């Protein structure tokens, strides 16, 4: 999108007053520069919403003020947690890991069983339960066809 030279000139003329307003809001020169830059980027992106004949500085000041308030509200909800103390108890580990591991196990077992069956080999499958009990099965004897898993 190409901006008209008149609009570019109006934006550039408004930068000093935008910067002064941003410094008065943020009390920080670097943050004020960031606010002005973000304001100009948003204004360029939404230039089709600007109504010709209205005041460009007022429109840009409104964008800057709304941007500052949005960032301020967002900043109030955020907590600095550089060492991860606050975020550690909030971690939620996926509940489906054991299910995925079981599917991968049965796929690998079916490949093993399929390769060995052609030679008349019936593997013995031993499974250890959560309680530590060992269950050993011979798939052919208990009519389990791991080749279809």
Report the uncertain regions: none
Q: What number is the mean pLDDT?
A: 80
Structural class: mainly alpha
- Reported by name, the CATH topology of the largest domain is Rna Polymerase Sigma Factor, Chain: A
Compute the separation of the termini in Å.
56 Å
Order of helices and strands: HHHHEE
Query: Count of DSSP E strands?
Result: 2
How many domains is the backbone divided into?
Answer: 2
The top-level CATH class of the largest domain is Mainly Alpha
Helix content estimate = 55-70%
Q: Helical element count? A: 4
Oligomer kind: single chain
CATH superfamily of the largest domain: RNA polymerase sigma factor, region 2, helix turn helix motif
Shape category: elongated
Radius of gyration over alpha carbons? 33 Å
Strand order of the largest sheet: 1-2
* Proportion of residues in extended strands: 5-15%
Task: Report on the architecture of this protein.
This protein has 149 residues and is mostly helical. It folds into two domains: 5-80, RNA polymerase sigma factor, region 2, helix turn helix motif (Rna Polymerase Sigma Factor, Chain: A, Orthogonal Bundle); 108-148, no CATH class. 55% of the residues lie in helices and 5% in strands. It has helices at residues 5-26, 29-45, 56-77, 97-117, and strands spanning 125-128, 134-137. It has a two-stranded antiparallel ribbon with strand order 1-2. α2 (29-45) packs across α3 (56-77). The longest helix has 22 residues, at 5-26. The chain is elongated and about 85 Å long. It starts with a helix and ends in a 12-residue tail after the last strand. 9% of the residues are buried.
């Amino acid at each position: 999108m190409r901006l008209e030279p008149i609009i570019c000139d109006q934006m550039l003329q408004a930068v000093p007053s935008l910067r002064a307003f941003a410094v008065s809001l943020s009390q920080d020169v670097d943050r004020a520069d960031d606010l002005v830059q973000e304001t100009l980027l948003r204004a360029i992106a939404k230039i089709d919403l600007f109504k010709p004949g209205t005041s460009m500085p007022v429109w840009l000041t409104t964008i800057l003020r709304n941007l500052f308030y949005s960032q301020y509200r967002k900043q109030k909800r955020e907590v600095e947690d550089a060492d991860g103390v606050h975020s550690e108890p909030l971690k939620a580990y996926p509940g489906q890991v054991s299910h995925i591991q079981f599917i991968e196990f049965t796929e690998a077992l079916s490949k093993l069983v399929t390769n060995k069956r052609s030679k008349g080999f019936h593997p013995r499958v031993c499974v250890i339960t959560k309680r530590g009990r060992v269950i050993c099965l011979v798939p052919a004897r208990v009519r389990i066809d791991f080749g279809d898993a």
